[in-house]
Amino acid sequence: MESMETPVNAPFKEKVKIEIAKLRKMDFKTKMEYIWEYYKLLLIGLVIFLIIIGGLINTWFINPPPDTALFISWNSGFIFDEHIDELTNILNSRLIEEKENSTVVISPMLFGDGDPTLEIANSQRLVAMVAAGQIDIFILDSAMLKDYARNGFIQPMDTVLAEVRSIDSGAYGRIEEKLTYAMYESEEGVFNSHMMGVDISDNPLINEHVFFDQELFLCLSVTAANIENVAKTLIIFSE
After folding, report:
1. Is the pTM here over 0.90, yes or no?
2. CATH pick for 67-238 out of 3.40.190.10, 1.20.120.1200, 3.40.50.1820, 3.30.390.10
3. In the 8-state DSSP scheme, what is residue 226?
4. Among 121, 216, 212, which residue's Cα sits nearest to residue 178?
5. Does residue 3 have a pLDDT over 50?
């Protein structure tokens, strides 16, 4: 292609005029070759920019991701992915209003497989999620319940039980019979026994979706944000 260099030291407006004048003298093919040769990096950058902007517009305004109405961290007891999906669908159908852009999330975080690297990674993830207030409910066995209570990952059930009583006093009575106690450290550093979980081991809804009979307790995360939906979940499990 014939050299068509624009003076480097020319003012910006002058450069623009020169470039426009060049393009007007070219046929379509030559014009496209010239634009690609001299402006391809700019064009590629522009395309990438537009893709990013389009993705952000889609995420923010057109198809925003659903809010988390309830986050359950399943930390004990073997459960298949398809059973998690079934439980998630059941809770979504009971907790989420029609057309509400929210969803229930059940996330397995299983420990004790003997891989120390994975154990450390899961522990770090757990601490980060609790600190960020992402988890509402823990599903634990009795040993984990006591350990989580001592380490401050779960809180006494008083707050959610008060919410249950305000919604369904009959369910409160059924749930009260399933409460289990563990040592919990107060803000003053004193350990006392508190209601720290609800036994759901023999719950029909749970037994339909776990692999074998196992000891399971529903516990309230210390940073739980969706107390009303936790209470409604307890009511569903009490039916």
Report:
1. no
2. 3.40.190.10
3. -
4. 216
5. no
